[in-house]
Amino acid sequence: MSGDAERDRPDTGASRADPPRGRGTRARRRALKIVAGVLVVAAVALAFALRSPSTVGHWASARGQADYLAAYGKAMADMPRPSRTLDVRTDFGVVRAYRYEGHPGRAEPLVLLPGRASGSPVWGGNLPHLLKVGDVYTIDLLGEPGRSVQEIPITSDADQAAWLDQVLARLPEKSFHVVGLSIGGWTATNLAVHRPRHVATLTLIDPVYTFSDIPVGTAIRAIPASVPWLPKSWRDAFNSYTAGGAPVKDVPVADMIESGMKNYTLHLPQPTRIPENALRGLKVPVLAILAGKSVMHDPATSRQVAQRALHGGTVRFYPHASHAINGEHPTEIATDLATFLNRN
């Protein structure tokens, strides 16, 4: 209303010190066109620099793949030894999964989905605690750096749900407690929206594109970090920024993520933020664990949307946690997850 009142107010005349209205408007429009032109040129230049003829995610070189796999193996050394290593065939490629034997009292195992460019080893600090909850599968997301191999283009949210549904269908159990971190949280929610048949419950750990969008400032910071030929320090700086300023030098998981960002080219569609009506329509129990200092979404907005949309869901808010919440609070997350599963 205040804007309408301002537009309807009679013109009382401009001060002599003010420039003529037409000239000022034209100048502002020229400035906006220049800014827009610069942004378009920058976007085209970035797209040209990162262009690739491939339509699937792939390694930039054999040397880059070897560098990543060495970092992956070093980070994997901090994990418990899996009881089984599986390569599961789907319509979109082969998906690597690891099975870990945990507490025998729970019928449905956990399925852990990692964040972007991280792979299964990102769960190293969580597994000792989560194995007390039940058996665990970890999965390397298809189309991301890791041991999964994408063969067919993934072009939509429906495709993202389809390959994961096929993985779960080919595992021996019938239903699973799906746990997703960051983009893995979006992947889990997207699965429950499109293909929920194997989902017993959802646990979303600081998910992106789920309850609110990625802030503009974070998106801008991510641009140079996504350019592979820029210095490693730029990617380290971005990873530290998302982890609340924590040092990432000589941290095996951080080295693995940095190598994936540098050496792997993603060809995945931009995730569509989960609509609130889709969240309201979820038929499975949901636990949302949100970081109060996350820079990958708006924590206050995410908390409000989650509390409003998840009927019968549980929202846990860790006010001092960063987006690296799984490494900062592994014990608390396992406790909250066990309580949630026991109640449901």
From TrEMBL:
<feature type="transmembrane region" description="Helical">
    <location>
        <begin position="31"/>
        <end position="50"/>
    </location>
</feature>
<dbReference type="GO" id="GO:0046464">
    <property type="term" value="P:acylglycerol catabolic process"/>
</dbReference>
<keyword id="KW-0812">Transmembrane</keyword>
<feature type="domain" description="AB hydrolase-1">
    <location>
        <begin position="109"/>
        <end position="242"/>
    </location>
</feature>
<feature type="compositionally biased region" description="Basic and acidic residues">
    <location>
        <begin position="1"/>
        <end position="11"/>
    </location>
</feature>
<keyword id="KW-0378">Hydrolase</keyword>
<feature type="region of interest" description="Disordered">
    <location>
        <begin position="1"/>
        <end position="27"/>
    </location>
</feature>
<dbReference type="GO" id="GO:0016020">
    <property type="term" value="C:membrane"/>
</dbReference>
<dbReference type="Pfam" id="PF00561">
    <property type="entry name" value="Abhydrolase_1"/>
</dbReference>
<keyword id="KW-1133">Transmembrane helix</keyword>
<protein>
    <submittedName>
        <fullName>Alpha/beta hydrolase</fullName>
    </submittedName>
</protein>
<dbReference type="InterPro" id="IPR029058">
    <property type="entry name" value="AB_hydrolase_fold"/>
</dbReference>
<dbReference type="GO" id="GO:0047372">
    <property type="term" value="F:monoacylglycerol lipase activity"/>
</dbReference>
<keyword id="KW-0472">Membrane</keyword>
<dbReference type="InterPro" id="IPR000073">
    <property type="entry name" value="AB_hydrolase_1"/>
</dbReference>
<dbReference type="InterPro" id="IPR050266">
    <property type="entry name" value="AB_hydrolase_sf"/>
</dbReference>
